[in-house]
Amino acid sequence: MSNSQKQPNAERNMEEGLPVDWVQPEPAPLVDRSELLRPSLYRAIIAEFVATLLFVYVGLLALMGVDRADGSSSNGGEAGNTVGLLGVAWAFGGAIFIMVYCIAGISGGHVNSAVTFGMFLGRRVTLVRALAYIVAQCLGAICGAGLVKAFQKPSFDRLGGGVNFVHPGYSIGTGLGVEILGTFLLVFTVFAATDPKSNARDSHVPVLAPLPIGFAIFVAHLGLLPITGAGINPARSFGAAVIANSHQGWHEHWIFWVGPLLGAALAAVYHQFVLKTGTFVKL
Description:
It is found in: Membrane. Keywords: Membrane, Transmembrane, Transmembrane helix, Transport. By secondary structure, this protein is mainly alpha-helical. The protein has one domain: Glycerol uptake facilitator protein. It has 13 helices and no strands. It has helices spanning about 5-15, 40-65, 85-105, 115-120, 125-150, 155-160, 170-195, 195-200, 205-210, 210-230, 235-245, 245-250, 255-275. Helix 4 packs across helix 7 (about 170-195) and helix 7 (about 170-195) packs antiparallel against helix 10. The model is unreliable at about 1-10, about 65-80 and about 280-283 (pLDDT under 50).
């Protein structure tokens, strides 16, 4: 039977209370203090820290080479000899693809505080794990941005450290709106790519799950880089702001927490209450 025939039958079986060929894991408890005694939690925290460090390091290092708006390049050479905005988008998207692929089996491969918040609202992780991940991600982002400053200090200082801010010509409302929608795109993609229903439709999905997530980061950066520098990740924005420690980095920093967290919440509500159709039963 083809996948196109299989899925409607599975949906119909589920609605009629009959067995289907996928299993929805039990929702995570709100608080599970016993997690603090499990070594797996601490392995996951370390994995999130290192992955976020590498993600921010790669992304900001690519950003240091982007052509400046005045036509000169950040390395003092001729314009056009650097990666450009397209290359920056590929760097962020590719880094997420690699990091999610590497640590998905350890921590779930969040590498983003908004994703963690969305997974918490979707009952994928407990409050204890969500808070631990967010702290690890922020610390990893600080270290990643610090390494970029150490290796590329002239470019880092000249380009403001890659901090996120609403660029001239755009309003605060526009900046907040694009951050909400960009994060919605990302978190919705994460939910869809990791949905057990997708695993049942196509056995290749578990292997390819990092790919649509990386592409979501890529396309979001293409649209948001000229407007806000593409935050959509509070940890990334926080790490750059801490290391740059500038008025530009802190003045509008709230946008890069409020926007992504709102976008993640909307994606969680959309996926959990609109797209999901009931309780899954093991075949």
